Amino acid sequence: MTLRTHRWSAAFLAVSVLFGGTFVAAKAGLTDIPPLLLVAVRFDLAALVLGGYVLLTHDVGDLIPRTRGDIAGILAAGIFAIGLANGLLFLGQGSVTSGVGAILFALVPIFTPLFAGGLLSDERLSATGAAGTLVGLVGVGMVIELTPATLRATLTGGAAIVLAGAVSLALGTVLIRRSAPRLSSTVRTAWALPISAALLHALSLAAGESVAAATWTPSALLSVGYLGVFAGALAYILHFNLLDAVGATRSSLVFYVSPVVATLGGWLLLGESLSAMTVAGFGVIVVGFGIIGSPELAPLARRSRHRLAEWGRAHGYGRAEGVRYSGE
Description:
14 helices, EamA/RhaT family transporter, disordered C terminus, transmembrane helix, globular, single chain, mainly alpha, membrane, EamA_dom, transmembrane
């Protein structure tokens, strides 16, 4: 394994942990701060940190949006992919566990092809993609333990709001791709974060939230600090660098590791638990994503099998029998 592979593997793990911790920190912060205000303050802090980072690491000329695509990409990120997506997540997070929230957000790679099929001429939804989407939706029903008796409460409850956030993120991602911006993803995010913060402050005021209602306890400050600096600015830098390096399909797999981090964090720090049905539903969602991404994941699987075979031959193991070539 090369140094570059080690580096991107470490970045993948770091992004998964940072994004997974978002759900735990949000759940903890919501006990002291209203949801929309919490996420707005999060992006205030993230905008300052990431804005400072790009100013220090980029030439001024590289920071200026110059095309309609740049502006459209910034707005799509600020309004849909970051602002509304996180606002809806934090609203819904108050009534679902950290693990369930992360699992529902793991549907982003499944929702994305639905929008891409209608908005991107080169990404039409295939029959395989449609089948994978249906399998993923079955998994969602299992995660939220949907039954005819609970259907109405589910459609108006926290799970539905979190799902709406996942839909917003998927739509925003496709709109960014459609806009074909020329700015780097990190610079676009630095522009998008203050737009997200302003949008969420406006929604917070419209919802009747007040800064006076917030209790700035040490726990609340730690939550905001983690969400703004680590799960905000740092996670976005790593995530978009990973996206540029390994592509959309493989980088989106962070959404399938994040629920593990969120579940463990919720269990260790918040005393939360998950049912067996929820865990099984997550497995079904992963299968759905595998069906959708099978054309792109197949070459990766072939390379993995090839490397495993090479390792076996190098260590004296037979290809089929699993016995050593040496005369032991």
